[in-house]
Amino acid sequence: MKSLKPRLLTAAIGIPAVVLVMILAELWHPLIGIVVGLASAWMVLEYLAARKLNSIVPLSIVCMLYALLMPIVVTEATLTYMLTFLFLVLGFVVSLVYHKKLSYGMLAYALFGTLLITFGMSAVSLACVGNGYSVSFFFVLIFLLPWMADGGGYFIGSKFGRRKLCPNISPKKTVEGVLGGAVFCVASAMIMGLVFQFVVFSGDEAAHVNFAALVVLAILDSVLSLIGDLSFSLIKRYLKIKDYGSVFPGHGGMLDRCDSIIFTAAVPANFGVIMKNIAILGSTGSIGTQTLDVVDKLDLKVSALTAANNITLLEQQVRKYKPALAVVFNEEKAKELQIAVADTATKVRSGMDGLVEAAQLPQADLVLNSVVGMVGLQPTIAAAQAKKDIALANKETLVAGGDLVTDAVRANNVRLLPVDSEHSAIFQCLQGMPDKKVLKKLILTASGGPFFGKTTEELRGVTVEQALRHPNWSMGAKITIDSATMMNKGLEIIEAGRLFDVSGDDIDVVVHRESIIHSLVEFTDNSVLAQLGVPDMRIPIQYAITYPMRYPSPVAELDLAQIGKLSFFEPDYDTFTCLRACKKAFAMGGAATAIANGANEEANALFRRGKIKFLEIGELVMGAVDSIPNFSPACVQDILDADRQARAFVTEHVGG
What we know:
The chain is α/β, with parallel strands linked by helices and 656 residues long. The strands form three sheets. It has a seven-stranded parallel sheet, sandwiched between helices. A four-stranded mixed sheet has the order 11-10-12-13, with helices on one face. It is 59% helix and 10% strand. It has 26 helices and 13 strands. Helix 13 (351-359) runs parallel beside helix 14 (377-385).
């Protein structure tokens, strides 16, 4: 029972500390990484003092500064942490397989040299994990699970252990003890999950524990805590250290209390038991509400919600999802919402500044941009600059912004994930493509809208109500009219070219009335891949959120036998002038695509208000592309100027 004392002492200090962190996490989470860094520095200084390794003191000072500063200055921790972790695991495996041939000294110093990097990156992951529930949950995970694996393994091994695991490294470790530790770890995870689900999360419909993921995480934690324990046993055995440390005397001191946690600390942050935190721009629109369906299915946390004017629905969403921030583009409506949700913790902002703030919210992992029109451009660039992954449903961003958007995405090393069904289909078909050279062309499918097969003469007198009757998709008014004019498909040609770096000549359009095949990709050997599914936007929305993983979705299964047949037709470029205007603008490059988009937004709105005829939309878009001088935009303001010129062109010609 001699080694029981430090375990109980650790628990007596650690458990109240965990509870305190859970209480203060929302306010103090940026400082948590510093605390972990200080603990690592303290541990290593004791380690050095025990062996009088004064020659490495300068290294320890550098490592200490590293551990203290990294949580503050680094925001992208996962990749660095994982590379460090893989190096440590590789060193451990090599030591087991080749321990007789490998210099223990070299291995010990290699592990020691990366020890603080691992601890430091764990601290970074912790500091970056966000606020609220996920931080408290994270803390319970990194402290409770390794302790349960280590303590459970110790007691089971002491009583039932017969078969030695690694006698040359840790003579008392047994196979039975390791299995017992894993069982303790899983059981503790389940109990903890139940406590969070029914006590901590009580009354919060948006917060749920993923129990299946929790079981996998507990098993992973038990394995990693074993690796940490054996790795430090290896170092101590080589350096002939058994007992040292003034904080927790006996059984290895501070080092032995932290070995398992060092190896497991970053796992919960990267694993996602409480899954991604998402900001939804345009949450009251068609894509936004369907995104919230996916959020409910996947148990995601919502950090920001935005709307243009619909504060009635936005208030309902705020009360259900409890975001940190809600934005209404209309300033007067924002004031009304602020009064309506004054009893909540949600902040309310307005205008473009509010959208940009939502796009750059620190706790958001992903920004889904589903706002309508050019208003989505600046928030998209802002999200990229804040190093947020972007799920893009706002096609005007890429159509108008072009290189400004793609350059911002590349410069900040973030992912731009398509949400449009056609672009998501292409994106999915391209997964696993060995080299871009094997790509021959992209084939976008179009439903044909409500006016497929109509002649120009037949379209002269169509009404707004007729244009809004899309045969397959449930969408907002603006995009439904764009589908009727086939402007939507023209914009998608431009968006596809910029998303996948393909010229307009290598993008075809085929009318597919059933909307079952969402797009196709043809390769140099003339083989063609297609992505199929029922016409439901929740499939591409979910794939963008969970990429590269796939999970069960709320969408119905595709039954090809019930569908019976699939049909395909050539698009009518003569009748649908908008489609032709977009292809021309894309070929021209520069600001021409922003001009085409701006002219369409203005003409589309005028048609919905009954100010112009249906066919005038295409005429005005083509007129703007032909008449307004093209130029190469160098900044966002240039894009906004081109958009303004296009809208002015439309209003002037309608007025005349």
